[in-house]
Amino acid sequence: MKKAVVLLSGGLDSTVTAYLAKEKGRVLHALTVRYGQRHIHELDSAKKVAKIIGVVEHKIVDLNPSLFAGSALTDKEIEVPKNRSPNEISKCGIPKTYVPARNAIMLSIALAYAESIDADEIYIGAHCLDYSGYPDCRPEFIQAFQKMADLATKRAVEGKPIKVMAPLIGFDKKQIVEQGRQLKVPFELTRSCYTEHDKSCGSCDSCTLRKQAFKQAGLKDPIEYEK
Question: Given Cys at both, which of 3, 10, 16, 170 links 45, Cβ 3.0 to 4.6 Å?
Fold first, then answer.
């Protein structure tokens, strides 16, 4: 059975990705990164998901928040965009919630972890069809990171490359919800909100896209919202 490292934030996308890896029969090792994100409640969700899915190990890595300045997700002086329609979100370009090089850094940590435990795959919940505009969620980025990993690791040089898996890359949010329903994902344990409130705010971009996806999929979102 192949080992896999799953980048698990506690959000909808990473949780569905973890369940896809589990369905493929992978032995799961979860990796969560605490980088000063204001939506710290997602870490609690990651812990709950890791426990219920039955990972072998769940590592939580702390990074210095000063490395990720200039994002609405790490700087409370920058307002998280709210009350925008999906159409408005799609036209905003790269949003304030972009975190500098986040996926590149997290994948690099996951690559080191994967090689240290002799894992065969890394799973990341990146996808490019949710209007977000994040440059590090594009297929081109995943492909480029794979090339780098093939050059940078002992395993790859010896003929056993670690594969970077982004099974949701071509999915939109509705399709992710539908995939999660098929896999019996515990949606109630996931957290998608960009704010630090106890309940999901219901009005940030992430909440807006999540609510729309559940509605389009004909499902009731089981989490509670402030609005």
Answer: 10
Tokens 């440059």 identify what position?
135
* First-residue to last-residue Cα distance in the chain: 44
3-state class (DSSP) for residue 225: strand
Cα separation, 33 vs 52, in Å, equals 19
User: For tokens 């970077």, what's the residue?
Assistant: 164
Say what the pTM is: 0.96
Residue 34 bridge partners (DSSP): 62
Contact (Cβ atoms closer than 8 angstroms) between residue 210 and residue 39: no
Using one digit for the tens of pLDDT, what is the confidence trace for 206-216? 999 999 999 99
Query: If 0-12 CB within 10 Å is exposed, 13-18 middle and 19+ buried, where does residue 96 land?
Result: middle
- Rounded Cα–Cα distance for residues 190 and 41 (Å): 10
Other beta carbons within 10 angstroms of residue 101's beta carbon come to 13
Closest among 132, 226, 208, 217 to 174, alpha carbons compared: 217
Quick check: helix, strand or coil at residue 121?
strand
Half-sphere exposure of 156 (CA within 13 A, CB side): 16
Q: Is 165 helix (H, G, I), strand (E, B) or coil?
A: strand
Domains of the chain, start order: 3-216 (3.40.50.620)
Residue stretches of the chain with pLDDT short of 70? 130-132, 227
pLDDT, one tens digit per residue, over 9-29 is: 999 999 999 999 999 999 999
Phi/psi at 6 (5° precision): -115, 125
